[in-house]
Design brief:
This protein is of the alpha/beta class and 584 residues long. It contains 19 helices and 20 strands. The strands form five sheets. It has a five-stranded parallel beta sheet. A five-stranded mixed beta sheet has the order 7-8-9-11-10, sandwiched between helices. Strands 14-15-16-20-19 form a five-stranded mixed beta sheet, covered by helices on one side. A hairpin with a 5-residue loop joins strand 15 and strand 16 (515-521).
Length: 584
C-alpha cells in the first residue's frame, strides 16, 4: 500500500496529538514518586542498583542527580550490574544495614530475592514483563513497586516506558513535590536540561515504541533533542555535553538515529566489552559520567571507553563473516518464524544481542544467538524479535514448560516482548530442537507492507528533506516506511565499499551528472538482489534517513528482500490510509 509523505506527516501528527498518559498510569507513577521523595529527604543513604545497559545507566543517572538536587546533603551510591555475572539484580552486592535500596531496569522477576536480601522497603522501577499473577498484583498495589506492565493483561494497553522513561517521570513528579514542600531548594535549569537529555538518550537506546499512545515517549525524545540542539556549558552538564560531542552530535540538528547509533551504542559498548577488558564496564561508564568536568579521571576514563568502543566495532565486523552471510540467505528462503544461530565458541555474551539484532533485521525473523563457554561448560546468548510477532519472552517461557524441557533443559533467561537474555543453558542442541518443534505456536501477524510514494525527482530535494525532518523522531519510532522508485539504469553509478564485495554504494545521478541520492546496499549479489531490473529501469527500495554527518541531505539503504513489495506497481494510492502501529 502506498502513502505520500504528506499523508504520513498528517497521520503521525494526528496520532501524536492523542498521545496521553492515562490517569491510572499517572497515579501509579505519583504513588512511587512519593515513596521515592520521602526516601530522598530522609537521613538514610541511598544505594541504586541498576542494569548494565544504556537504559540502566541513564535511569540510575537521572535518579541520582535528581536525589542530590532535591537533597544536596544526600549520600547516593550507584552499583551497576556486571555483564560478566548473572542477569537481573547484581548478586555480588552485599546488603548493608540502614540503607535505602532503589533498583532500576530489573527486579520484577526477583521480588522474593530482593525482599529477602535488601528489605521489603526496597523501591523497584522496572519495565520488563511480569510473568506471574501474584507479582503482578503486588506491583499494582504496593506503592514502592513500579512496573506499568502490571496494569493490563493486554500489554498494548500499558504505557511502554523504558526504565529511563520511568526514572524521568519520577523526577518530574518529585520536582513538583520538592517545589511545594521545600521552596528554598530550586532545581536548576542545568540539571533539568541534563536529565531531559539523558531521558531522551535512554528512551531512544532502549528502542521503545515512540508512537505509543499511552506514554510520553515521543515527547521525551523531542524535548531531549531540542535540549541537545541548544546545549551550552551554562545550561547542560559539561561531561554529558562532552560525551555528545565526542560521539559526533552537534555538527547540525541532532536526529534520533544519530543518538541511538552513536551515543546509545557508546553507552552500551563498555559493558559489552566487560569479558574482554575483564572489568565491570558499565560501572566504569557510570563513573565517567558522574566524575565531573574538573576531574582529570573523567577524561582518562573517556579515552579508555572510546578505545573499548572501537574494539567493539572491530569485533562485530569480524563476526559478520561468510557463515553469517550464508545464514541470512538460508533463513530468508526458509519457512522458519524463529531460528537459532550459533556464534563461535567463547564469544562474549554481550555480542550475542548485537548479532541477533542484525540477523533479525536482515531476515525479518526472530533470532536467538547462542555461544558456548568452555570455562563454565554451558551456553549463553540473546534473542531479538520482529514486528508483529508474539512475545519472545512468552514463547521461550512456554516451551520451557514442556515435559521434554523440564526433563532435559536447564536454563536461566529474562526479558520482554522484543528481547531476551539467556544464561547457563546446558544443551544448545536440545534447545534448538524445541524451538523448531514449537515454532508453529509462535504467531507472527504481518501488517500490509507500506511504502512511500515519492517520485525519483523528489528524492534529493530540500523540500523532501524538510518533510522528513517534520517526522523526527523519524516516523513510527526510528524509521520511515521504505520508498519504491524506478530509476533508469544509466542513471545509477555503483562502487564497492571497502574489501567486502557484498557491500556497495549506488549513486543516482541527474542529467547533469550530479548525485541526487546515495544508497548503501549490502548483500548485493546474484544470490540475493535487493534491486530488480527490467526494460532499462531498476526498481529500487529506498529507506529514507537524514544524513548522519551534517543533516544536509537524505541517504538510504536497500537491505530488503526483492519480494518485499512484489505488486506495488499495481496498487493505487490510498488517500485515506491509516499508518499501522509500530508494534502489534
Amino acid at each position: 500500500m502506498k502513502i505520500t509523505l504528506d499523508e504520513l506527516i498528517s497521520d503521525v501528527k494526528k496520532r501524536e496529538s492523542t498521545m496521553e498518559e492515562p490517569q491510572e498510569v499517572t497515579d501509579m507513577i505519583q504513588a512511587t514518586a512519593k515513596v521515592a521523595y520521602d526516601a530522598i529527604v530522609s537521613e538514610k543513604p541511598i544505594t541504586i542498583l541498576t542494569d548494565y545497559d544504556a537504559d540502566g545507566i541513564c535511569s540510575a543517572y537521572i535518579f541520582k542527580r535528581a536525589a542530590e538536587a532535591i537533597n544536596p546533603d544526600k549520600n547516593v551510591k550507584v552499583i551497576c550490574n556486571d555483564r560478566r555475572g548473572a542477569y537481573g539484580v547484581p548478586k555480588f552486592v552485599q546488603p548493608e544495614n540502614d540503607v535505602q535500596y532503589v533498583i532500576f531496569d530489573t527486579g520484577c522477576a526477583e521480588l522474593k530475592y530482593i525482599n529477602e536480601t535488601f528489605g521489603t522497603d526496597t523501591i523497584i522501577c522496572d519495565h520488563h514483563l511480569i510473568t506471574d499473577d501474584e507479582t503482578k498484583e503486588r506491583f499494582c498495589f504496593e506503592d514502592r513497586l513500579l512496573d506499568l506492565h502490571a496494569l493490563h493483561d493486554d500489554d498494548s494497553k500499558n504505557a511502554q516506558y523504558c526504565a529511563t522513561g520511568l526514572a524521568y517521570r519520577l523526577y518530574q513528579e518529585m520536582k513538583m513535590m520538592s517545589e511545594r514542600e521545600n521552596p528554598s531548594i530550586t532545581i536548576s535549569e542545568k540539571i533539568d536540561n541534563t536529565l531531559t537529555i539523558m531521558a531522551c538518550i535512554g528512551t531512544i537506546s532502549d528502542v521503545v515504541n515512540l508512537m505509543d499512545a499511552n506514554s510520553l515517549n515521543r515527547e521525551i525524545v523531542k524535548k531531549g533533542i531540542d535540549k541537545i540542539d541548544n546545549a551550552t556549558k551554562e545550561n547542560t552538564d559539561f561531561t554529558i555535553g562532552y560525551m555528545l560531542a565526542q560521539c559526533g552530535i552537534g555538527d547540525n540538528t541532532a536526529t534520533a538515529k544519530d543518538i541511538g547509533f552513536s551515543v546509545g551504542a557508546f553507552l552500551n559498548s563498555a559493558s559489552r566489552m566487560s569479558e574482554t577488558t575483564k572489568t565491570n564496564g558499565a560501572q566504569v561508564m557510570f563513573n565517567m559520567l558522574t566524575n565531573g568536568e574538573d576531574s582529570s579521571k573523567t577524561y582518562v576514563l573517556f579515552d579508555r571507553l572510546k578505545e573499548w568502543n572501537a574494539q567493539r566495532k572491530s569485533y562485530i565486523n569480524a563476526m559478520q563473516d561468510e557463515r553469517f552471510y550464508n545464514a541470512i540467505v538460508e533463513q530468508r528462503g526458509s519457512e522458519n518464524k524463529i531460528f537459532v544461530y550459533m556464534l563461535p565458541e567463547n564469544t562474549p555474551t554481550a555480542f550475542a544481542g548485537l548479532i541477533a539484532g542484525k540477523l533479525s533485521e536482515a531476515t525479518d525473523k526472530a533470532v536467538i544467538c547462542l555461544t558456548y563457554h568452555s570455562d563454565t561448560q554451558c551456553y549463553s546468548g540473546s534473542g531479538r524479535n520482529v514486528e508483529g510477532a508474539d512475545s519472545l519472552n512468552s514463547f521461550i517461557s512456554n516451551i520451557l514448560h514442556s515435559p521434554y524441557a523440564k526433563k532435559y533443559i536447564e536454563m536461566n533467561f529474562g526479558g520482554h516482548h522484543d528481547a531476551i537474555g539467556i544464561s547457563n543453558l546446558n544443551d544448545a542442541d536440545k534447545f534448538n530442537m524445541l524451538v523448531k518443534k514449537y515454532q508453529g505456536e509462535f504467531k507472527c501477524t504481518k501488517s500490509e507492507n507500506l511504502v512511500l510514494d515519492i517520485p525519483l525527482s523528489d528524492l534529493g530535494s530540500h523540500e523532501t528533506l524538510k518533510k522528513v525532518r517534520e517526522l523526527e523522531p523519524i516516523g513510527n519510532g526510528l524509521k520511515l516506511p521504505p520508498a519504491i522508485v524506478n530509476v533508469p539504469s544509466d542513471k545509477i553509478v555503483s562502487k564497492q565499499i571497502g574489501k567486502n564485495e557484498h557491500w556497495k554504494s549506488f549513486s543516482i545521478i541527474d542529467d547533469s551528472g550530479n548525485k541526487v541520492f546515495t544508497v548503501k546496499d549490502w548483500n548485493y549479489d546474484d544470490r540475493n538482489k535487493a534491486m530488480k531490473e527490467s526494460d532499462g529501469n531498476v526498481e529500487m527500495l529506498v529507506s529514507l534517513e537524514i544524513n548522519n554527518f551534517n543533516g544536509s541531505h537524505l541517504e538510504g539503504t536497500t537491505a530488503y528482500k526483492s519480494d518485499f513489495f512484489p505488486s506495488v506497481k499495481e496498487q493505487s494510492v490510498n488517500k485515506s490510509v491509516a499508518v499501522p502501529q509500530e508494534k502489534i
